[in-house]
Structures are given as C-alpha cells and as structure tokens.
C-alpha cells in the first residue's frame, strides 16, 4: 500500500509540475523553434571561432523552458557552455525590466573590481543540483533535466538577452554560449530577432535601433566610457555587431 501511495504521489507531483511549466512557458517558443532559430543564426557571419552553440530560454520567473544545441551530437559544442547558456538567460531576465533591458554584455564593466555593480556575479549562484543532474544523453533535448526548474546563475559577458513580445512585455531571457563571448552576443541577437521577441523598449546602448546591443567603448585605460562596455574579442565580432538587425518597435 505504501508503495502504491508513493507512486500516486509521485505521479501527482509530476503532473502538477508539468502543468506549472506549461503555464509559465506558454508564451515562449518551444524548443524546436529555438533550435531552428539558433541554427540559422549561427550560419551567419558572426565572427569568433564558428563553433556549435548551446541555447537556453527561461521565463520571467527564471524557470527553464527549453535547452537546445546546434551540433550533431551532445558533445559537438563545448559541454561547459550548456550551463553558461542557462546562466546568461537567467541573468538577462533577472536584470531587465518592462521598461529597460540589459544584455549580459552590458554588465561586463560594471561588475569588474571598482565597478558600480561589483559583486553582482556572485549574487545569484547556480544551483548545482539542477545544473548537473540527469543523464548527459538527455541534455539539450525536450527531456533536459534543467527544464521546469530554476537553475539560477549570473553571467557578465556577451550572449544573454531579455525577451520582449510585440506588446513590449518582458517574457523571460535567452542565453547563448559556445563561441567567443562577442560572437555569442551576435548569435543571440539574431536568434531573438528570428523568434520575433526583440520588441525591446530601451537600454544602455547609444544606438537607437539596437538599445541593448553590446557596447565597445573600453579605451586604452581599460575603462568603459559609459560604464556598460565590453572588451573586444580579437576577431571581427565588434564590426559585425554594428550590422545586426535593429530591434522591433511596438505598434502604437
């Protein structure tokens, strides 16, 4: 009898969890859509090392809705980038608001020693019980063990963007990882654009049509002129960032 009750309880909890996930992620693209958009975004010239990528989407509560990768196998992209992509998604969502967005790239300079957000990177640590559970064979699939849970984490270099729908409502965050952080940003930007979740209200970039774009304003002194700068990565990523598509505008 105890075994039966335990089985029933487990089934109920699983059902409740599934329903909760469906409710929190219903306004965000499904994993197949995210994977397709990420694969197409990577095909563009983005700079960097031209490596395969991980991508994670979280909802506004930080709950993981999907985890995907672009390669043929689960280890065709850096294994460590799976959790980094989740960190980036969580960060972009956690530090963006309905009226203003911060990409993870925007947080680099402010979180360095002496910066006005120094310490932020340690403020919301990854939950290792969520990040590293389960069989590797399920990673990046609809059965990825992070899905339906809040993994947490803060990441302060390029690749994370907040997601806004056509009404300008913030729905969550997207994190992309697997290449240089500058290329990650470019790929994340194209992925968000393809998913039509780039109706960003405003941000810290001086570009009116790319409001939460990566900012390359770190001078010879090593300091960001505006406080939200990101270092260049050695390739052509910074030039390509200027050619990214503009954010979408909310209809009035």
Task: Outline the fold blueprint.
Layout lengths: L1 H24 L5 H13 L10 E6 L4 E6 L11 H14 L33 H4 L28 E5 L5 E8 L3 H14 L42 H5 L11
Antiparallel strand pairs: 1-2, 1-4, 3-4
Helix pairs in contact: 2-5
Explain this structure.
The chain has one domain (28-241): Haem-degrading domain (Beta-Lactamase, 2-Layer Sandwich). Helices cover 29% and strands 10% of the residues. It is built from six helices and four strands; from the N terminus they run H-H-E-E-H-H-E-E-H-H. A hairpin with a 4-residue loop joins strand 1 and strand 2.
Quickly describe the structure.
This protein is α+β, with helices and mostly antiparallel strands and 252 residues long. It contains 6 helices and 4 strands.
Element string (H = helix, E = strand) = HHEEHHEEHH
- What CATH calls the topology is Beta-Lactamase
- Low-confidence segments, ≥5 residues, pLDDT <50? 4-21
- Main beta sheet strand tally, sense and closure: 4 strands, antiparallel
What is the total number of structural domains? 1
Strand order of the largest sheet: 2-1-4-3
Rg, rounded, reads 18 Å
**What value does the average pLDDT take?**
92
> What percent strand?
5-15%
The CATH class label is Alpha Beta
Count of separate DSSP helical elements: 6
**Termini, distance in Å?**
61 Å
Global outline: globular
User: Structural class from helices and strands?
Assistant: alpha+beta
Give the helix proportion (percent range).
25-40%
The counted number of beta strands is: 4
Q: Which architecture name does CATH use?
A: 2-Layer Sandwich
Question: Superfamily at the CATH H level?
Answer: Haem-degrading domain
């Amino acid at each position: 009898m105890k075994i039966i009750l335990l089985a029933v309880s487990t089934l109920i909890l699983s059902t409740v969890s599934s329903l909760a996930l469906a409710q929190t992620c219903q306004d965000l693209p499904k994993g197949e859509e995210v994977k397709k958009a990420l694969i197409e975004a990577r095909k563009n010239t983005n700079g960097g090392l031209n490596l395969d990528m991980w991508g994670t989407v979280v909802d506004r509560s930080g709950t993981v809705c999907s985890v995907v990768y672009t390669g043929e196998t689960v280890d065709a992209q850096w294994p460590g980038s799976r959790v980094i992509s989740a960190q980036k998604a969580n960060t972009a969502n956690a530090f963006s608001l309905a009226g203003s967005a911060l990409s993870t790239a925007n947080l680099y300079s402010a979180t360095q020693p002496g910066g006005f957000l120094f310490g932020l990177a340690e403020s919301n640590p990854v939950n290792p019980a969520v990040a590293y559970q389960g069989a590797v064979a399920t990673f990046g699939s609809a059965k990825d063990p992070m899905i339906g849970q809040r993994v947490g984490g803060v990441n302060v270099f390029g690749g994370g963007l907040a997601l806004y729908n056509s009404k300008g409502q913030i729905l969550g965050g997207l994190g992309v990882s697997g290449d240089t952080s500058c290329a990650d940003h470019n790929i994340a930007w194209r992925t968000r654009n393809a998913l039509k979740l780039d109706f960003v209200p405003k941000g810290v970039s001086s570009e009116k049509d790319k409001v939460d774009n990566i900012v390359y304003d770190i001078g010879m002194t090593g300091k960001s002129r505006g406080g939200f700068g990101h270092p260049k990565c050695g390739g052509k990523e910074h030039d390509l960032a200027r050619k990214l598509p503009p954010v979408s505008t909310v209809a009035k």
